[in-house]
Every structure is written in structure tokens, then in C-alpha cells.
């Protein structure tokens, strides 16, 4: 058994303090930085190394998460470029007949996100859904927080936790447990659907009374254009009386006109910004969805040709999404004005980067603390030189603590399954959905025969805990950042909304797994 040192205990206390602060609905950046300093001082015995650890942890987190920041920036910049052409409203118009209200929008997002994420992982699915469906959902009356919840549960949770098509996760779990990978994959699929079904049902019930009547004003407010209404509409009084009623009426008229709902008599066209040809606006509204549709077809083709090992998925697919977004920015800026093409292109990219870092930058010091618990990154943070063969030599504080905890799990099928679930959830706190799978898989292989539960079942349970946690449903420093970025909501608030429904689903699916599969 690995010895638990003072650094381990301080790190565990830090985790508890951060989780308690988050549940108290307070910002957790201060305790994250404080415990990063404390762990650095205690592990190295040097105040200077502890102070350096604060910077190094944030830098490592930035390096690991920058791909998420960049995809948010590029897609946000693309939406800004399309908005300048009036193409953004045309692009989402075909979805309005289906997404007529918040209820239909919620389940449409769930189905679309799950379908795409199951084949290509959530990384490319989130920007696609965020760019195309979220604006329609907001306009139909769905709250941005609920849209983010639906994307996170369906993509980062249901689809990724089973990984049924690409099968990287079941492969890791089965190998560590010395179990049948197909059986692990099948049971993981069943558990993911149970967990997701319970979580979505709870989330939908919680959101039911908060659904609002659809309105263009909701979309305008979400896009941050509410201030434009305040400046452009003259009123007698900003809050009360006839002036307030006039202001609301004129705001609604302005928003509807902006959406293209009010058009000239006999015309079926949308209003377009001054100086922009309606044909150009329509062309981009059609071309952009077709480009991403072609990308989906291409991804499916590569998957069918090369299988899970050679097909384009995950980060590679996200890179293609970002590349299309970047080229769209340039073409749209050129279509807007040839004279200002270069300047406008730079403005859209800059606006996207500013938005990404303003919305998500605070997560970096928090993620840095949890990276200290991961042996792959702790050496860089604490200044530990790598081994002679180049492998990381830093401490695995979180892994060591979890490994020691297995000795205290009672030899009972249900208790053991819940214990492995808890270990999977804790192992996912580093923000990586797959890093704890060898641990939970090995525990499943060793505990299964002792407690009378098949290793395949316990491996699938551990896989659920690890990926639902670290894969991005209620760990704010994971890829949940991307979901929050495209929904334009606070990532900590989104994590809190996901926590109770997801944990309830995980517990129910774990108990059913032992009862049904054994």
C-alpha cells in the first residue's frame, strides 16, 4: 500500500474545501489557489516552490484546456461574422417549426447531441449544437442554463460514458479488469441510458415551470444586445407607467423586425443589415450548415473505412470544426466588405478570444489545483524532474489516496459497487474522463469474484462514475467549460445544476446494475 503523506492529506482537505465552497454557491478560485500553494510548500519544503506552483499549475491547465478555449473563440467569432450578414437568423429559421417551445427544444437538443456525440465524442458535437440549435432553443423559451444542461447530460454524460461506437473507454476498463470488452461495452451502454434518463427526467421536471413563452427578445438578451434596445428606444420612464409599456412594445417590435418576423407586405424575406445583399445573407445561411453536415458525413465515412482506431474523432474532429469556423469568418468578412475584410476578420477572431477567456479564464487556476493530483502533470507543477526515460516523476496524490481507500470497501455486492462508483467519481475530479479507468477497472477485476458481482458489471459502474464526473457533467474544470461557453452561462452554476440529477442517476443505475446483471 502506498504511504499517505502530509501532502496527500492537505490535497484531500483542499478537495473537500473546494467542493464545500462550490455547494455553498461561492467562487472557488481562492481556495483552489490557496491549497495549490499549500500543497507545493508541504511537498517541496520550499515557499518559493509553493509560490511557483501557483503559476505553473495555471500554466499547465491553460496548455491542456486551450483547445477548448480556441474552439469556443473560433465558433463565437464565426457567429459574430454571420450576425453581421444577418445569416445567423436565417440559419436557425428552419428549426423553428420543430422547436416551437422550450419543451420541444429541450428534447431536440438532447437527441441531436446524443446522436452526434455517440459517433464522434462530444468535442465536435458541442460547437455544432451550440452554433445551430442553442440560439433557436433560447428564442423558443428555453433558458440558456437548461440548454447547457441538456447538452452536458446527453453528450458529455450519456454518449461519452458508454463510448459504445468508438469503444476506447470500454477497452481501457475491460483490459484493466481482465474482462470481456464487449460485455463491458454493452453494460456501460445500458447504465449510461439509465443514468441519463434519470438525470434528464429530473432536470426537465426542475425546469418545467421555468419555461418561458418564445420571444425574439430572449434571443436578443442572450446575445448581449439588450443594451442596444435601451439606447435606441426613447421612453418617458424607464420602469413604470406608459413609458415602460411603450418601451416594452417598441423593444418587442425592434426584436421581431431583427428576427425577420416582421417583413414588408407580400414579402417572405428576412431583413438584412444595411449594405448587405439578401442573396449573400441567404448563401451563408445555407452554406455553413451544409459545410458542417458534410463534415459529419466525412467523419462517418472515415469511421466506416478505418474503424474506431483510424476514424477521425475527438480532438481531430474538433480541429476540423474549428478550421471550418475560421474560414467562415474570413469569407463572411470578405462578403461584408472587401475594403475592411482584413480588419473585420481580425475583429471577429479577437472578439471570440476575448469572450472565451472572459467567460472561462477563471477556471484555469481551479483546474491547476486538480492537475496536481494527476501524476502526469504534478511534476511540471511542483518542479520535479522527469525520470531518465522521460516519463513523469511527480506524485499521484489523488490516485494514491483513492488506491488506499479500496481497502475499506466492505465485501458486499451493492456496497462494493457503490464504493467503486465513488472511487470513479473522485478519480474524475482531475477533469479527465478516462484517466481513472485503469484504476476502477483493476478494482473491478479484483473485487468482483470476492463479492459475487461480475467484473464486467463493476468495471462498467466505475466507468460511469469516472466519465460522468470528469468527462464533463458536474466537474466545472473539465470539458463542461465548452458547454457553458456556448450556452453563455456560468460554468459553476451549470455544474451545480447537473450535480443532483446526475448523482441520482448514477446511484440508481449502480443499484440496478447489481440487481440485473450481478
Question: Gist?
Answer:
With 518 residues, the chain is an all-alpha fold.
Task: Give a description of the structure.
- With 518 residues, this protein is mostly helical.
- It has helices at residues 6-23, 29-44, 47-85, 87-92, 102-120, 122-132, 134-140, 144-162, 168-177, 181-208, 216-222, 226-232, 241-259, 278-310, 314-336, 341-360, 363-372, 375-382, 397-405, 413-427, 437-451, 455-473, 480-487, 491-516.
- Helix 20 runs antiparallel to helix 21 and helix 21 (437-451) runs antiparallel to helix 22 (455-473).
- The chain is globular and about 70 Å long.
Alpha-beta content class: mainly alpha
Helix content: over 70%
Overall pLDDT, averaged? 81
Uncertain runs with pLDDT below 50, 5 residues or more? Answer: 225-269
- The Cα radius of gyration reads 24 Å
Number of helices: 24
List keywords for this structure.
518 residues, mainly alpha, 24 helices, globular
Amino acid at each position: 500500500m502506498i504511504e499517505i503523506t502530509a501532502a496527500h492529506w492537505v490535497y484531500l482537505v483542499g478537495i473537500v474545501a473546494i467542493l464545500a465552497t462550490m455547494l455553498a454557491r461561492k467562487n472557488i478560485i481562492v481556495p483552489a489557489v490557496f491549497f495549490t500553494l499549500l500543497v507545493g510548500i508541504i511537498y517541496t519544503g520550499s515557499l518559493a516552490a509553493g509560490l511557483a506552483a501557483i503559476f505553473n499549475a495555471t500554466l499547465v491547465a491553460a496548455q491542456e484546456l486551450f483547445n477548448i478555449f480556441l474552439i469556443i473563440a473560433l465558433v463565437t467569432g464565426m457567429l459574430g461574422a454571420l450576425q453581421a450578414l444577418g445569416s445567423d437568423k436565417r440559419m436557425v429559421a428552419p428549426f423553428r417549426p420543430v422547436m416551437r417551445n422550450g419543451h420541444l427544444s429541450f428534447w431536440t437538443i438532447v437527441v441531436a447531441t446524443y446522436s452526434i456525440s455517440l459517433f464522434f465524442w462530444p468535442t465536435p458535437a458541442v460547437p455544432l449544437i451550440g452554433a445551430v440549435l442553442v440560439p433557436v432553443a433560447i428564442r423558443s423559451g428555453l433558458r440558456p442554463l437548461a440548454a447547457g444542461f441538456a447538452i452536458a447530460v446527453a453528450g458529455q454524460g450519456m454518449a461519452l460514458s458508454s463510448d459504445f461506437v468508438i469503444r476506447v473507454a470500454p477497452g481501457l476498463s475491460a483490459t484493466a479488469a481482465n474482462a470481456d470488452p464487449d460485455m463491458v461495452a454493452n453494460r456501460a451502454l445500458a447504465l449510461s441510458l439509465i443514468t441519463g434518463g434519470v438525470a434528464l427526467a429530473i432536470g426537465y421536471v426542475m425546469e418545467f415551470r421555468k419555461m418561458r413563452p418564445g420571444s425574439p427578445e430572449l434571443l436578443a438578451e442572450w446575445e448581449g444586445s439588450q443594451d442596444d434596445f435601451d439606447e435606441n428606444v426613447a421612453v418617458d420612464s424607464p420602469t413604470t407607467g406608459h413609458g415602460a409599456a411603450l418601451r416594452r412594445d417598441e423593444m418587442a417590435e425592434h426584436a421581431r423586425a431583427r428576427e425577420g418576423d416582421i417583413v414588408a407586405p407580400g414579402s417572405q424575406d428576412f431583413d438584412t443589415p444595411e449594405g448587405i445583399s439578401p442573396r449573400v445573407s441567404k448563401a451563408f445561411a445555407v452554406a455553413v450548415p451544409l459545410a458542417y453536415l458534410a463534415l459529419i458525413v466525412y467523419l462517418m465515412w472515415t469511421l466506416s473505412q478505418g474503424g474506431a482506431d483510424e476514424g477521425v474523432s475527438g480532438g481531430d474532429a474538433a480541429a476540423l470544426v474549428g478550421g471550418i469556423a475560421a474560414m467562415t469568418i474570413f469569407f463572411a468578412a470578405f462578403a461584408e466588405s472587401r475594403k475592411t475584410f482584413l480588419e473585420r476578420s481580425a475583429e471577429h477572431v479577437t472578439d471570440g478570444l476575448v469572450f472565451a477567456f472572459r467567460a472561462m479564464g477563471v477556471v484555469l487556476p481551479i483546474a491547476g489545483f486538480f492537475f496536481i493530483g494527476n501524476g502526469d502533470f504534478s511534476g511540471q507543477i511542483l518542479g520535479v524532474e522527469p525520470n531518465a526515460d522521460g516519463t513523469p516523476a511527480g506524485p499521484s496524490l489523488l490516485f494514491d489516496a483513492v488506491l488506499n481507500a479500496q481497502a475499506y470497501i466492505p465485501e458486499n455486492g451493492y456496497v462494493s459497487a457503490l464504493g467503486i462508483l465513488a472511487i470513479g467519481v473522485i478519480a474524475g475530479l482531475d477533469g479527465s474522463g478516462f484517466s481513472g479507468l485503469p484504476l476502477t477497472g483493476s478494482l473491478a477485476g479484483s473485487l468482483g469474484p470476492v463479492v459475487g458481482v461480475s467484473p464486467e458489471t463493476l468495471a462498467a459502474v466505475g466507468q460511469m462514475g469516472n466519465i460522468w464526473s470528469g468527462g464533463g457533467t458536474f466537474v466545472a474544470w473539465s470539458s463542461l467549460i465548452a458547454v457553458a461557453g456556448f450556452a453563455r452561462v456560468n460554468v459553476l452554476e451549470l455544474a451545480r445544476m447537473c450535480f443532483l440529477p446526475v448523482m441520482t442517476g448514477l446511484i440508481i443505475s449502480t443499484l440496478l446494475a447489481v440487481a440485473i446483471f450481478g
